[in-house]
Amino acid sequence: MTILITAGPTREAIDPVRYLTNRSSGKMGYALADAAAQKGHRVILVSGPTEIDVPDGIDFIPTESAADMYQAVEYWIGKADIAIFAAAVADYRPAQIAEQKIKKSGDTLTLELVRNPDILGSARSTFGFNGVLVGFAAETEDVEENALGKLERKGCDLVVANDVSRKDIGFDSNENEILLVYPDRIVPLEKASKHHLGHQLIEVVEGMITPSNHQ
Ligand code: C5P
Predict the structure, then answer these.
(1) What is the DSSP secondary-structure string of the chain?
(2) Which of 22, 65, 120, 136 has most ligand 1 atoms within 8 Å of its beta carbon, as the pocket-test mutant?
(3) Is residue 46 within 6 Å of ligand 1 at its C-beta?
(4) pLDDT per position as a tens digit, 139-176
(5) pTM for the full model?
(6) Domain 2-94+106-206 belongs to what topology?
(7) How far apart are CA 146 and CA 150, in angstroms?
(8) pLDDT given for residue 168 in this prediction
C-alpha cells in the first residue's frame, strides 16, 4: 500500500533570518515512515525541517512552512491508501514576511499573525481523500476530550493522542505513551519507544484498510 506521512515542525518566516516554529523533533513521524517502509509499503514522507536522517527506501518531500506542506500534501495525497498526519503544523504565520532583516527600534515589537490552513482538516473536504485518515493530537490537558473533538471535526478514522505536558514522553523524547482514539472507543497503548510504537501503529492502520478505502 501507499502511505503518506507528514512529520516534523513547520517554519514560518518572519524575515530573511528569523522564523517561528515549535518543539516537534519529527521522531514519531520518521519512526512511522521507517516502520512502514520496512513492512514493504511505499512511503511518501512530507517533512518539515528536522535533524533526522531520511530513512532508506522512501519518497522524501522536504517542506518548510505550513503553506509548503499543504501544497505537497494536496499534490501527493491522491496516491495514498493511508494518510498519517504526525506533523506539528504551526497554527499561525506572520501576516507579512519582511524583505529585509527587521532592525531593532522601539522597546516592543508587535507581529501580526494570520491562521494557517488546516492540512488534515482539508484532507476529506478539499482534497477528497477517502482512504484511512489518521491524525495526531498533542495535548496538555483534557487529552481524550480534545482528541475526540479533532477526530470528529477533521473526519479522521483514528486520532493518536498523547499528553505533551509530561516531561518523559512526547516532544523530542524517544518514548511516547499514546491513546488510540476511535469514533466509538479508546485504546491505550503502553509507554514504549517511538520506534516500537511506529511498528504497532503501522499494524493498526493496516488493519483498518477495507475494500472501500483501498485505492
Ligand atoms: O494542531 P492540532 O492539534 O489541531 O493538530 C491535530 C492534527 O492536525 C495533527 O495530526 C496535525 O498534523 C494536523 N494539522 C494539520 N494542519 C494544521 C494543523 C494541524 O495537518 N494546520
Answers:
(1) -EEEEEESB--EEEETTEEE--S--SHHHHHHHHHHHHTT-EEEEEE-S-SSPPPTTSEEEE--SHHHHHHHHHHHGGG-SEEEE--B--SEEESS--SSPPPP-SS-----EEEPP-HHHHHHHTT---SEEEEEEEESS-HHHHHHHHHHHHT-SEEEEEETTSTTSSTT-SEE--EEE-SS-EEE---EEHHHHHHHHHHHHHTT--TTT--
(2) 120
(3) no
(4) 889 999 999 999 999 999 999 998 888 877 767 778 88
(5) 0.95
(6) Rossmann fold (3.40.50)
(7) 6
(8) 79
Rounded-to-integer distance, Cα 32 and Cα 41, Å: 11
Q: In the block, which residue shows the cell 504526525?
A: 86
Residue-range domain boundaries for the chain? 2-94+106-206
User: Is the shortest distance between the CB of 148 and ligand 1 below 6 Å?
Assistant: no
